[in-house]
Input
Amino acid sequence: MDSDSTPSPSSASPFDMVSGALGRYIPPGPAAAAAGSAAQRGDAAARPREQADPAPGPQEQILGAVNLDRDLRITRCNLDPPVFAGVKAVPGSLFVDLLPPWDVPTVTRRLRQVLETGEPHVARVQRLRRSDGSELVVSMSILAAAHGEGLTVSLIAMARRLHLYAAETAIGTSLDIGETAQSLADSLLAWGDVAAIDLDFAVWTGEAVTERKPGRIRLRRAALVPDRAWPDGYVTPGDDLPSDASRLLAQAIQRDDAAQAIVIPDRAAIERALGSARLVRALVPGDQAAGVACIPLVLDGEPPVVLGVAEVWRREGRSFDDGELLDLQELVGRTAQHVDLARQHQREHTQVLALQRRLLPRSAGDTIETASIYRPAAPDSAGVGGDWVNSFPLPDGRTALVVGDVVGHGLGAAATMGQLSMEARALLSAGLAPDEVLEHLDETVSLLDDAESGLAAGYSALGSTCCIAVYDPVSHRVTLSSAGHLPPVLVPPGGRGGPVVVRPHPGLGAEFALREPFDVHAFTAPPGSLLALYTDGLVEDPALAIDEGIGRLADAVSTVHPWDALEEAARRVVSAVAPGRQRDDVTLLLARMIGYRKGDTVTWRLPARGDAAARARTLVSALLRQWNAREATRDSVLLVVSELVANAVRFADGPLTVRLIRSGQGLLCEVGDTGNGRPRLGRKGLLADSGRGLHVVHGLTTRWGVRWTDTGKVVWASVAM
Output
């Protein structure tokens, strides 16, 4: 092969490719002579150019390359373009010797990271030291050499307009406020030695940005570059600026006409403006800082609104000229829109998380212990989805456990999530069975998706899933229905866990032809049992079958000891099962069944005869004496039970069931029958023949209601102890 030929793409190293590109852009003359001297040194990039190649002007000579070994020492270099004059890249020396001292730790860490992982690090704005003490701003990319032999560092000298273009393309790629501010600070470093971004506190919280009077801005530091150890007292990212500093900056940048850039040219003027040694320590980055340009981030409007301020600090002898200030104002001005977009995204993120936290279980009562985990797929609002869990005691002493997964992300999914959650809670509290509740939710999703609401808003909840379980602490039975949701995992006391057998069903809002009645699954959950409800993000992993993921969850829940704190156990289960690379929201609800103590519940079966009320009073009276109930409580309970039994005998058929439950909240009286009529409290007078009993019950109880069973209904009433 001809020694002057360019290596093929398959065999060329990154250094050869970068240097080859450089060779084509070196014009005849002194640069070519430099290339010839490089050829004598054996650099691959110094091969003669073909005469047909164009010879661009000196302003285009911006590309250089440096090859490093695994000890980060320079082995070859090609920094021949005039723009790199004074950058002494000597073979055998450390590459970090070309850097300002404060950049050495960060760049060293990035170099070693590329060595270890092989993944390139592209386009970092960096400074190089020249031999005369000045600095050159470059865009630095780090590439792994072939076969792990070292690194190639590509350097592009950043001409002013080129850097401005690169900065504008880099900023705004994230909707995270901190990342947006950091990108701006990194870009501003091309114009100074230190760059800081301070944002109004309202931007951080996502609040609406409104007009503010001068002096009312509260600033928090969002970004600071370069990354180094700063002295005590200096304001670093996450810190609030002192109130008098915020007031001072507000007066400087927020005027009656429009916010303008402020330049303080020397150290003496800076100290006079700040007025105190404390503010100098908080705001001035070291003794070398001698001048600062403060450029406001302004949101266009009538009047303009200041979102914050960018600060660019320089050392002595480097004043800001008009062209540089125009570039700074142009860059910061274009960034303000990205900052406001991030603020709006933060506001949505905060609203969604607040709604989800409101739906998280707080207390499930004395008969069941619950713990829940919610982990969004991403820290920004784009990753906040429609997963939700809820557990709450029902008025009749049972406990509802609900988990759902609404299609989509953001406020559309959050609004649907909140509506479905609240509707499910209301219907369950009204006594509807889980399958009946799902029928209503199915209809709700269909209505939300019609042309006038859901689709017009650009959001569809069709296909959302939900699973509802209701635990009876007396019979220790769980009644469960599912709409397209993955099956819960049940772990009996001292046994191994496994998924509950649930017949598959389409998600909510399925087409009419696909709709089938929701099945009801009933199973026993003795005290000490664990029930795990979850969303698919916990068990779905591209590397595993879904059944295997559910099996891993069952194994993890089976390791929970009866004495383990449930909150800690839930976190441990999620850590063990959740995919390493999380693609969806992860939600888990763990419920440990406790139930009532055996002596706190009594059930009697009575025939529906005329003497049933008297028989019930006798049995209940004896029990209340055994429970040492107060006399006033005994009188109220006896009257309530008598009225409920008499009402059942009058309007229902079949045998009656009377159950009394003692709990920390009071006494729960239940009377079940085989009738399907719903008792209603009318507006009739107390002397009317019909409905008088329910008025008596209503006056003596804290709450009463009806729930429906397979064989009829149960009327319950709660009496305070």
Notes: The longest strand covers residues 289-299. The CA atoms of residues 230 and 271 lie 19 Å apart. The chain has 17 helices and 25 strands. The two ends are 100 Å apart (CA to CA).
